[in-house]
Design brief:
Layout lengths: L2 H11 L12 H4 L7 H7 L2 H13 L5 H17 L4 E5 L11 E3 L1 E3 L5 E3 L3 H5 E2 L19 E5 L6 E3 L2 E10 L8 H19 L9 E15 H5 L2 H6 L24 H16 L4 E6 L5 E6 L2 E2 H21 L2 E4 L13 E9 L12 H20 L1 H6 L22 E2 L2 H10 L9 H11 L3 H6 L10 E3 L4 E3 L9 H28 L4 H15 L12 H9 L8 H5 L5 H9 L5 H56 L8 H33 L3 H29 L10 H6 L2
Parallel strand pairs: 1-8, 15-16
Antiparallel strand pairs: 1-2, 3-4, 5-6, 6-8, 7-8, 9-11, 9-12, 9-13, 9-14, 10-11, 14-17, 16-17
Helix pairs in contact: 4-5, 7-17, 10-11, 12-17, 12-18, 17-18, 22-23, 22-24, 23-24
């Protein structure tokens, strides 16, 4: 048998479970490696503490003298924790996080050594950033970009390094990362939502977007994972016949967590707890060896940072347990892929969830206001929201009847739909006292009860209301949540600004009471945004047809989906909301297309390599065995040998057929790649990869998987699905 595969199987089946025992209570451990509120109180002067708090609350700048003080205290704390280095931790457009470590250690001119870290180092750094994607913003000759401290996400110690969350911008001020636009979007939604929330409660001074993500992933034995070049280089299996047993028995979901995985999870959760990531639930997912982890929700910027940090911690901890984590959206064909639901809401500084109904009619009207405005925002910008989750890897999942379709729609359930239907009938202009009473008692007043038993959930919907939050379900497992969160918060901010303008106008010009004005505007929004509401089966073919009638977008591939990002309406939106300039929007579009091209190109190359150096040789080796067998039979039986070699001959024929097809298709794919590569225009190039190159992948795979079923198991070089997914 192929030594690579044999060794991997041998190694994986000899594994001893690395047991893990928790020593310290989690509540005690929580945030021990974070320069959080507690540490700030302990280490900072009162002035410095106030200035950080102020920066977090209002976004105000921290002056240099204060920064020096803060840096000094942070350093003292970090050194006391055993840190030796510090780094500006940032989110380049590659999707991962980046860091460049500098030692605290420094030499004075007189040769004396000391630990140095001042305000300058805290506030700003200039990493040599010429290799990060910028979409043409930063020419390489002026490769300077700088990272700047984001005080709203606390510094933390990871390994022996003090990590300072930062934004990453070009020398001319354009964002080169995913965090800067997110922070701007969060600021926009804060301002817009605070304005509207103050209709209901004057004491509101700030609104935070909240995010609770749910991370799905696969855990595979490390030796087996690294024996497959496709998993190593592309994150997914390009070939592989489905195991005889997949997820059809539904015996994995919420089942007993395998021991090795459980020990990994415990270890991971302890690491997360130290880092202040509030992990809470863990369970098996639908597919074999697939799991999910979810935290308690947090302010969105922090939640995004925590998700990125989590993915990094997961990889490191998995390694200790001889496991490999797969974040790819579709690592295995034929079984479910992995997503990352984004649960989103808005919360006031007075502690109120704006998407949660309350105990009084006014609080319920507040709920309805934010609820309906979100629906309206998603209706207006559904295509842009779809674009925010587009990627080569996520294309495998969206619309594959395991994740939501590529069509955006909103599920709110029968009862809330009934409420909105009633509100559509609200009178124009002033409301009679009877109508007001009726609304308060029987429509708005009933909402809390409705939500209490709002148990009907529609798993096929990409954007579902789940009682006190919306859940965006199409986000890919590998993705940085900052992208969809930037778009969602921007469009809701824009919508709330429109809303407030319209309500204020009705109050001033038509002399309506505040609640009358709100009812009037909401009525129009409910009517206008009806097409986005859909409670039926999102996987059904009927919905595809119905959605087309409703003129909802249905962009199935990334190059198509990304088009809307550079449409005038989107550019205007981002610019008006001060989230991204036109230059930034266009640069991102280019980076996203480029990433799509590169990922597809790499898959194509790996495919060729697998086919030519592993699969074809294995098939030929087996073919030779069959041939010598047939020769032997002929030797014995002479001219009538065919009768005795019927099976062998038909196997031979099948192998030759699939061999020829594999070879032909992979050559054609290479030709298509060459043609695509010659394309100068990036859009055309992405489309060529999408429509000319990618379709070959399925074709080639089909024949390879047939060969896997024919060739002697001993001769097959690649770890099989049953080994990858069922060896624990
Ligand atoms: P599920 O969707 O699996 O049924 P839950 O409804 O309990 O699970 O919540 C899923 C996620 O929603 C959790 O990660 C939780 O932190 C998050 N969540 C709950 N409330 C909010 C909120 N107000 N804002 C954002 N996320 C929230
Ligand atoms: Mg969920």
């Amino acid at each position: 048998m192929s030594t690579q595969r044999t060794n991997a199987i041998r190694e994986s089946s000899k594994r001893k479970t690395r047991s893990f025992v928790e020593q310290i209570r989690r509540s005690e451990l929580f945030g021990s490696h974070v320069f959080n509120e507690d540490k700030m109180v302990q280490y900072l002067t009162r002035d410095a503490y106030e200035s950080v708090k102020n920066a977090i609350f209002t976004g105000s700048k921290i002056d240099r003298k204060m920064a020096d003080q803060i840096a000094e205290s942070m350093k003292a704390w970090a050194l006391s924790m055993g840190a030796t280095h510090y780094t500006h931790w940032f989110q380049p457009l590659t999707g991962a996080t980046a860091e460049k470590h500098d030692a605290f250690f420094d030499l004075m001119p007189n040769g004396r050594a000391l630990e140095k870290f001042g305000g300058g180092q805290l506030v700003q750094q200039e990493p040599d950033a010429s290799s990060f994607p910028s979409g043409g913003i930063r020419n390489t000759f002026e490769a300077r970009g700088y990272t700047a401290w984001d005080p709203s996400s606390p510094a933390f110690i990871y390994g022996a390094t003090l990590c300072i969350p930062t934004i990453f911008v070009s020398y001319t001020g354009e964002a080169l990362d995913n965090k800067a636009p997110l922070l701007r979007a969060l600021h926009a939604v804060d301002q817009a939502a605070t304005g509207v929330a103050r209709y209901f409660d004057k004491s509101v001074n700030k609104v935070m977007a909240t995010l609770g993500w749910e991370q799905e992933y696969f855990l595979i034995d490390k030796a087996l994972a690294s024996s497959r070049p496709d998993l190593v280089l592309t994150g997914r299996t390009l070939v592989g016949q489905a195991a005889a047993k997949g997820q059809q028995l539904d015996d994995h979901y919420f089942g007993v967590i395998p021991r090795r995985a459980l020990n990994f999870m415990k270890d991971l959760e302890v690491e997360c707890t130290k880092l202040g990531i509030p992990v809470k639930t863990r369970h098996n997912e639908v597919a074999p060896n697939q799991f999910e982890l979810a935290p308690v929700f947090e302010e969105a910027n922090l939640a995004v940072d925590h998700n990125l940090l989590l993915m990094d911690v997961m990889e490191k901890v998995a390694d200790r347990h001889d496991l490999k984590v797969l974040f790819h959206e579709k690592p295995f064909a034929g079984i479910n892929g992995s997503g990352k639901h984004n649960n989103w809401s808005l919360a006031t500084d007075t502690g109120v969830n704006l998407l949660s109904p309350g105990s009084t009619p006014m609080k319920n009207l507040q709920f309805l206001t934010f609820f309906v405005n979100t629906i309206k925002a998603v209706d207006t910008y559904e295509e842009l929201l779809r674009a925010s989750i587009a990627s080569a890897t996520n294309d495998h999942r969206l619309g594959a009847n395991e994740a939501p379709p590529a069509i955006f729609s909103i599920f709110i359930g029968e009862q809330l739909s009934a409420v909105l239907d009633e509100l559509e009938g609200v009178s124009q202009g002033k409301l009679s006292p009877e109508e007001k009473t009726e609304l308060k008692l029987n429509v708005v007043g009933k909402i809390p009860e409705i939500l209490l038993d709002n148990t009907d959930r529609n798993r096929t919907s990409p954007f579902a209301f789940t009682g006190n939050k919306f859940e965006m379900r199409g986000v890919g497992a590998k993705m940085n949540c900052a992208k969809p969160m930037t778009v969602l918060n921007t469009i809701v901010a824009r919508q709330l600004i429109e809303f407030k303008k319209e309500v204020d106008k009705l109050i001033e010009k038509k002399k309506l009471k505040k609640d009358e004005a709100i009812f009037n505007v909401l009525r129009e929004y409910i009517k206008a945004s009806k097409r986005i509401r859909f409670d039926g089966d999102g996987y059904s073919e009927n919905w595809q047809k119905e959605a087309a009638k409703r003129k909802l977008s249905n962009n199935k591939t990334t190059p198509e989906a990304l088009e809307i990002v550079v449409a005038k309406a989107s550019v205007d939106l981002f610019r008006d909301m001060q989230v991204m300039s036109e230059v930034e929007v266009k640069a991102r579009h280019e980076v996203d297309l480029e990433t799509y091209i590169l990922q597809t190109q790499i898959e194509g190359r790996v495919f060729n390599e697998l086919v030519n150096t592993q699969i074809i040789p294995a098939a030929i080796a087996y073919q030779n065995k069959v041939i010598s067998n047939i020769k032997g039979i002929k030797e014995i039986y002479g001219s009538g040998f065919q009768k005795h070699a019927e099976a062998q001959l038909s196997i031979l024929e099948e192998i030759s057929g699939h061999l020829a097809a594999t070879r032909k298709k992979s050559e054609a794919m290479t030709e298509a790649r060459k043609k695509a590569n010659a394309e100068k225009d990036i859009r055309k190039k992405a489309n060529a990869y999408c429509h000319e190159v990618r379709p070959y992948f399925e074709d080639i795979r089909y024949h390879c998987d047939k060969l896997e079923q024919l060739v002697d198991d001993q001769d097959w070089p690649l770890a099989k699905y049953r080994e990858l997914l069922f060896i624990r």
